[in-house]
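Re: that chain you flagged

S.,

Sorry for the slow reply, it's been a week of failed gels. I finally had a moment to sit down with the sequence you sent. For the record, here it is as I used it:
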Amino acid sequence: MFYVIGGASGSGKTTILPYLRRARPEVAWHDFDERWTGGGKLERQQLTHAWIRTALEHGGDFGLLGQCPLGEVLAAPDAPQLAGIKHLLLDIGDVERVRRLRARGGGQASQEMLNWAAWLRVHQAFPDWRPDVLTDGGWPAMRWERWHGRENVNWPGQTLDASGLTPQQCAEQVGAWLKSEA
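Prediction finished late last night. Pasting the structure tokens below so you have them in one place:
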């Protein structure tokens, strides 16, 4: 199974990674940013595909935490070769996100990040919501028809609002989601 814990910056993905590694050591857990060297949409889509290739080479359960919208994961060229894909959007309220990003530094606390978080939230519920956010200027190898414009798209994504949760509590809820998806 290919487990994706997606979310905008500041949602807690990297923070819960050590907890997930301890709770579910049989899953090969990785942070998308282990390989991220910067760039934009095209580079994110290519790296998502590279992570899928890594998961296929691994051959067992694989977990990826990063800014990975469900539509991009499903549209990646080799995604159909995966045994299965389960996607969870880790989300928090905007005020908490800004607080976390300001504490982190680096200028990530921006309106653009809040807009991205809002778009991810709606995309997780409605596959037809503004697909141009992913498709326009995207990587030509992506297979958008796997989800965009199709009726009855199997949209397996769920959302966890982690606002107010400690990292341990958040990881426990993600763990419960993993058990329910097994």
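What I noticed first: The mean pLDDT is 92.

Talk soon,
D.
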